[in-house]
Design a protein that fits this description.
Elements (H helix, E strand, L loop, with lengths): L2 H11 L1 E2 L3 H11 L4 E4 L7 H18 L3 E4 L3 H11 L23 H14 L9 E4 L5 H14 L5 H9 L8 H11 L4 H11 L11 H24 L5 H21 L5 E4 L2 H4 L15 H9 L3 E15 L8 E5 L7 H8 L4 E4 L5 H4 L4 E4 L14 E4 L1 H4 L2 E8 L13
Parallel strand pairs: 2-5, 2-6, 3-4, 3-5, 6-11
Antiparallel strand pairs: 1-8, 6-7, 8-11, 9-10
Organism: Paenibacillus albidus
Protein name: Erythromycin esterase family protein
Pfam family, one: Erythro_esteras
């Protein structure tokens, strides 16, 4: 298909993002869904967070969405959840986002969202308060700690069983790589112990008294995180797609558990990278047998899922040069020629929105081009490796294009500081 046909389709679809009628159209369309998935093309771009915040506020306040589930760890996000629901003071709000890459959630945009959510919740009964939760799998040790604290505080008969289960992990001294090698290569994993513990905690929130229900839910979600993390670290040693798939299946399971907790009519917002929320079947991920959250939810819930992708042409981003490195503000170069971002820039250097549910969608359905994806580790000099071949109108229901973007400014996370 020629560039002219693609550009003609873009021009017919694109709307100025900042116009109220444009946002109203998006909110009306998204507001009909049960799951609204809000993406990002990096984990360190300020505007991705601020625009998602703007949309989330309106969907919560105007459309009744009940919680935000993010690509973050359950324990640290649950600490923030308790703050926004008014159960703790400000010193605890972001204090647990202290593990690399802490800037993903310990940043000014999230602090502003937290304050808005706390204010939104302040006069509401507990059953009507909006929540904020993590659905990722990385919190192996932190989730174990939280389970033990929860059981000990209640004098639970399951405390001894939990301690026995977690003894299996002690030889690895909180080193995920060490555990993964031992479990994957030598068959010395802790899978059976974790599954046994999860079975004890599963569903306890249903019979808990009202004041303790969410804490019981948290214990179960922490047990699910331990189970997911154990499987993830055990399989990641093989360097194949299965560890990715385990992670995204876990995120969907955590999301569905939250939906069950909040009730049948609940509607949820999901914040995660485009590579998780955009349907993997519309990218080259499918060739590697990779699945993701967007695909799994669409397969199960169909039109009750509404995915909004994000991208930008150039700017700056917060990222590290290697895992665990000090975060830097890096330049994001102009998008490569004929990528999705460059085509949108060629159409005009302004922020815009495209919604694909109309007659023009069929034209873009035939086009697979590169779509930029930046992770927490980034090397701008290797720019061509950061593009995922994508059929954009099948990957998302709508796309937000921000022509120029800037890096997040991380907050310094210390007890009592944020």
């Amino acid at each position: 298909m020629s560039d002219k046909w693609v550009m003609d389709s873009i021009r017919k679809l694109a709307r100025p993002l900042r116009k109220e009628e444009t946002l109203a159209g998006l909110l009306n369309e998204a507001g009909n869904a049960k799951y609204v998935l809000l993406g990002e093309a990096s984990h360190g771009t300020s505007e991705y967070y601020s625009v998602r915040t703007e949309l989330s506020k309106r969907l919560i306040a105007e459309q009744g969405f009940r919680f935000i589930a993010v690509e973050g760890d359950w324990p640290s996000c649950y600490t923030l959840n308790r703050y926004i629901k008014g159960y703790t003071g400000p010193g605890a709000a972001l204090s647990d986002f202290n593990r690399w890459p802490s800037w993903m959630w310990a940043n000014q945009e999230i602090r502003d969202l937290a304050e808005w959510l706390r204010d939104f919740n302040k006069d509401k009964p507990d059953a009507d308060k909006a929540g904020f939760y993590g659905m990722d799998v990385y919190s192996l040790w932190e989730s174990m700690d939280e389970i033990l604290k929860y059981l000990a505080a209640r004098g639970s008969v399951d405390l001894e069983a939990a301690e026995r289960a977690f003894e299996c992990f002690e030889p690895y001294t909180r080193d995920e790589q060490s555990y993964g090698v031992s479990a994957s290569l030598y068959g010395e994993g802790c899978e059976e112990e974790v599954i046994a513990l999860l079975s004890k905690l599963q569903g306890q929130w249903k019979s808990a008294n009202q004041d303790d229900q969410e804490e019981a839910l948290s214990a179960e979600l922490n047990a699910m995180a331990v189970k997911g993390a154990e499987a993830y670290y055990r399989t990641m040693i093989r360097h194949d797609s299965e560890s990715w798939n385990i992670r995204d299946r876990h995120m969907v399971s955590a999301l569905e558990k939250l939906m069950e907790f909040y009730g049948e009519k609940t509607r949820a917002l999901v914040w995660a990278h485009n590579t998780h929320i955009g349907d993997a079947r519309a990218t080259d991920m499918a060739q590697d047998e990779m699945i993701n959250v967007g695909q799994l939810l669409r397969e199960k819930h169909g039109s009750d899922v509404y995915a909004i992708g994000f991208g930008s042409y150039q700017g700056t981003v917060t990222a590290g040069r290697s895992w665990g490195a000090v975060p830097e503000t890096m330049n994001v170069p102009p998008a490569i020629t004929n990528s999705w971002e460059e085509l949108l820039h060629r159409d005009g250097a302004e922020d815009k929105l495209l919604m694909f549910h109309n007659e023009e969608r069929t034209v873009l359905d035939e086009v697979m081009v590169g779509h930029r994806a930046i992770g927490v580790v980034y090397h701008p000099e290797r720019e061509r490796g950061n593009y995922v071949p994508t059929v954009i109108s099948k990957r998302y229901d709508a796309f937000i294009y921000l022509d120029q973007t800037k890096a997040l400014v991380p907050l310094r996370v210390e007890a009592g500081q944020v």
